[in-house]
Amino acid sequence: xxxxxINNENDKLEVALIGEVxxxxxxxxxxxxxxxxxxxxxxxxxxxxxxxxIDSTGLGALIGVKGKHPDAVIKVVNMKSxxxxxxxxxxxxxxxxxx
Amino acid sequence: MEVQTKEDAVKISLTLPGIPEFVSVARLTLSGIANxxxxxxxxxxxxxxxxxxxxxxxxxxxxxxxxxxxxxxxIVSGDRLIIDVCDSGRGFDLEAVExxxxxxxxxxxxxxxxxxxxxxxxxVKSLENNGTIIRMIKQLEE
Lengths: 99, 142
Hints:
The complex is a heterodimer of chains A (99) and B (142). Chain A has 99 residues and is α/β, with parallel strands linked by helices. Chain A has helices at residues 26-35, 56-68, 81-89, and strands spanning 2-8, 12-21, 43-47, 51-54, 74-77, 97-98. In chain A, strands 1, 2, 3, 4, 5 and 6 form a six-stranded mixed β-sheet that branches. In chain A, helix 1 (26-35) links the parallel strand 2 and strand 3 (43-47). The radius of gyration of chain A is 12 Å and the shape is globular. Chain B contains three helices and five strands; from the N terminus they run E-H-H-E-E-H-E-E. In chain B, strands 1-2-3-5-4 form a five-stranded antiparallel β-sheet, covered by helices on one side. Chain B starts with 9 loop residues before the first strand and ends with a strand.
């Protein structure tokens, strides 16, 4: 299961993912991100502290966010080791700022 | 697709519907089997991703309607875990699967690459109109 908490402030958009992103829950993530208004000019921060699982479907959704907002600085923070490992092997740690 | 297995190899089979919410069942089953075999937490996380990627693949390319199903076989052979994910779809041309372009990542096409990176051995057998089998093998490290 996945739950998503979004905090849209003046200068940044914080998105916390809690649970699992897979082929089933990824549509929820895509829909939530599509619903967010006024993203232009903001830093986008994905907080993955409570994300237990992600696979290529979820990574694809994050690539989609980058595609939709090519000029945005996107940070991915607080990754668990299994999650950061996937960012490393797929090269995504090069497109996103990971902390 | 023959594989050498030990005499006392055990096979656990799961038939899953082509419905995304049940991929997590393949992960849960995997966790139980891999934990029992003695794989550590990091290896189990890798295995979970690999089996999910193969199931996602089976669903995307092998199941045309929700009634279609696919099969996950977990074969425990000594200290080797062999996982076969079999669908009955149109099959695909493995040669046509491109390696991901890391400078211009796309939303799709990472699955097989991730499987190959996480598992010790990967074999894909795809027959035109006769489905695809993705076989993945992970050796338990001493």
